Amino acid sequence: MADPAELTELSATELRAALGARDISAVEAVTAHLDRIERGSAVNAMVTIDADGALRRAARLDAEGPDPRLPLFGIPVGIKDTHDTAGLRTTYGSIRHAEHVPERDAAHVRRMRDAGAIVIGKTNVPEYAAGSHSVNRVFGATRNPYALDRSAGGSSGGAAAALAARQVALADGSDMGGSLRNPASFCNVVGLRPSPGVVPEAEATNLLTPLTTAGPMGRTVEDVALLLSVIGAPDPRTPIAAPALGAAPAAADLRGLRVAWAPTLGGQSPLAADVAAVLEEAVARFAEQGARVEIACPDLAGAADAFLTLRAAEFEIAWGDQLDAHPEDFNDRLTWNIEQGRTLTGRDIMRAQERQTTLMREAARFFERFDVLLAPAATVAPFPVEWEYPRTVAGEAQAHYLDWMRAATTITMLGVPALSVPAGFTAEALPVGLQMVGPFGSDHRLLGIAQAFEALTGFARHTPLLPADSRHWSNEAR
């Protein structure tokens, strides 16, 4: 039998190759990851575990034998607790849904299962995925595997932490204002916000304002590309779905690459000094490889305000009636955000949509001059887990729980693909991610650029130094 510790260190693509060659069994792979979940329970990343179901599915796959048509054959995965899983509790991080068990899978979850993935369990989220700190009244806070007294980010924080702690080999997530990119940055993993429509939202109620999209997370760029190849395909139920991406991406040649570097996104977003220092070194690697690096940024005027308007409008539509009927079911931040939506007029919303259109056109013009935009994925390093959110960034007060997320929310408004890739660590050994942004539809090209950078740095291979059994972890033990 393979060494369980060694199995969980394999990337998803390495694990798939070993499963395909029958060097290991799916049961061994699942057992090893379940052991990591148990030993790393203090991370609180995996909140509903289906050990028996996962082992039964693994045994069936082993009996059937590796199928080359199943790209995720035998790979243990975590599913975000806002994405429905048939027969497996899905709470949305809300006390209102603490015992909710859906009858059907979300569309992309079904694709993952059909591709051979084994769902081990659900990954933690903030309440209704609102915010970039994964804490709720059902399961509590997810802790950062690199420093258990720090946040894992959010809203896909449980997914990122589970990947970093080697509890799953792949995970899904979703992103409205940074929910794939922020936790990836905090946990030294890779999170891709695809071009809107690449991962179809078959159950979406609003297809015309592409703020939210599901997307892949993994420990390496290659793993993220693997999962994207499964969940990123057109769906006839989503008329605006993007066309199929085609062949898998290859590492890009950085020589001559036209790179824009925007540390504060043209003054739209403050940046903590410790994060800036790490990212300056990361950007320098591009220049060393022959890329043409220039300080430049699209015109993002009005992006933050338009995002807040459209988000508040969506929140009010989604949960306004529930807030009226059950106000105790919503935390203060969600209540505030829903109430903001109630102050909006139709003119406010149309103006925000007009601004979004202008921003998307600005992005198209910008990427005629540049191949990739580099920016922070998060404005700060992982903050103390007890905080709601950072109240200041680089000495600038943050007005509310969304304010510190502007490095991601403003990019959302461009309607383009963006990812966070491990870029290094602060002096306190806290992870920092580099955000890479490309033109609409350039998802594979962007992954190729990220893969070339990843190969230069090796940060993706770093493993958090968790105790052998973190159930007994304390601040004093750090």
From TrEMBL:
InterPro entries found in the cross-reference section: Amidase, Amidase_CS, Amidase_dom, AS_sf
Highest taxon above the source species: Bacteria
PROSITE patterns assigned: AMIDASES
Q: Molecular function (GO) terms listed? A: catalytic activity
Q: Where is the Amidase domain?
A: 28-447
Which parts of the chain span the membrane according to its record?
A: none
The family database entries (Gene3D superfamilies) matched by this protein are listed as: Amidase signature (AS) domain
Indicate what this protein is called per its UniProt record: Amidase domain-containing protein
